[in-house]
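Marked as duplicate of an earlier ticket. Keeping the data here for the record.
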Amino acid sequence: MAVGAAKAVWTDFGGVLTAPALELMKTYCERIGVEPAMLGTATWAVARSFGTDDPMEPLDTPLVSEPEWCRMVEAELRERFGVEADMSRFGERWLEGQRGNPEWSDYLRSLRERGYFVGLLSNMMPGFEPHWRSFIPAAELFDDLVLSCELGMRKPLPAIFELAERRAGVLPGECVLVDDLEVNCEAARAAGWAAVHFTEAARAIELTEGLLAGRPEVVP
């Protein structure tokens, strides 16, 4: 490894190891017969009842169980739009049909083979277990998992980055976050990390390789 280069790569899950988040939402809404805008409005309303503007925080930390959250969102859909929706088994049905991102998974596997620390740093709801592991070989890809649902905190909070760097046993400047949300990338940079905003695998690999080689100038 290059002197002063990154030593640990932390990857996000949704939108990086899965299809893009908007695509997942569109597919899920088609399954339950609800317009995406309606579901978005309903989940925002439920989030605000927990004192947050982040629609997934109630599930990701978690502040509420998945069945109860589903009942709350169903009630909002019914009251606001007159729509009856069955949101049971939300996590399972959200990930239904996912096959992962083989190009990115193969790259993560190659990083471990080259001696880099590779971790999963994800805002993940408990309901994704065990379904995400059915298409992501976690034991092959990751040295550690830092999951919001197990910790009670989530990106972009600074504390989750501090925990991740301690778990990796490296300094902040030796960590890279690859995430599909720019707000999380900005938080990682504020914590002293490097970050790659994931849009597609080939470009993310190019940018990550530059950071691992100590060439941050390749990242826009």
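See parent ticket for discussion. The longest helix spans residues 66-81.
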